[in-house]
């Protein structure tokens, strides 16, 4: 379990990160089939393709957006990559590896309390949209990201995305809490007056165990938060 947190009150909306957070997939987990495809597509050594994937994930927030910007592709090309590598929905991976029943139950309890549940992700909208529906958020997510996916900017580091959410939903910043696994993505919402929660679910060890450990971390964070909503 995570260390006991001091929880805020008066929360009316939760903003979830999806990858590595409430749907704990890691960049290496979900893109295991991309490196050979991208190496062939762009004439790269396999090691170079893997290095680019990690670099774009860290600097752009979306591997395929980074590739698209460098090689002059638009994001409809990303749909082709997902389809041809067998990761079009993400469900093949999620269903094979992840116990989602408890998280889905927790999302339902939060929804029953009348708390708005939003998803903001830097990843590809089709892919993470499927994952979002699979884990039970499809009825509760009126927004799935507020990013211009044609431009390689890590928008979570900017105020615009957070101010857009606040103005769209008619709430005050202190009525939101943002759940993230990446500390840098909490800096701007915190500066704007939003509450934040870091869910520490980075891979702690062998890949065979990491997915389950990350789900346990996500469950612990939501279970800590639920009584205070």
Task: Describe the overall structure.
By secondary structure, the chain is an alpha/beta fold. It folds into two domains: 13-24 and 97-228, 3-Layer(aba) Sandwich (Rossmann fold), CATH 3.40.50; 28-92. Helix content is 48%, strand content 7%. Strands 2-1-3-4 form a four-stranded parallel β-sheet, covered by helices on one side. β3 (176-180), α10 (187-191) and β4 form a beta-alpha-beta unit. The model is unreliable at 88-93, 138-154 and 204-209 (pLDDT under 50).
Q: What top-tier CATH class of the largest domain fits best?
A: Alpha Beta
User: What's the total helix number?
Assistant: 11
Beta-strand content bin: 5-15%
CATH superfamily grouping of the largest domain = HAD superfamily/HAD-like
Give the fraction of residues assigned to helices. Answer: 40-55%
Number of strands: 4
Low-confidence stretches: 88-93, 138-154, 204-209
Summarize the biggest pleated sheet.
4 strands, parallel
User: SSE order in H/E notation?
Assistant: EHHHHHHHEHHEHEH
* N- and C-termini, Cα separation: 20 Å
Structural class: alpha/beta
- Number of folding domains? 2
Shape: elongated
Give me the CATH fold name of the largest domain: Rossmann fold
Give the averaged pLDDT, no decimals: 72
- Please state how the strands of the largest beta sheet are arranged side by side: 2-1-3-4
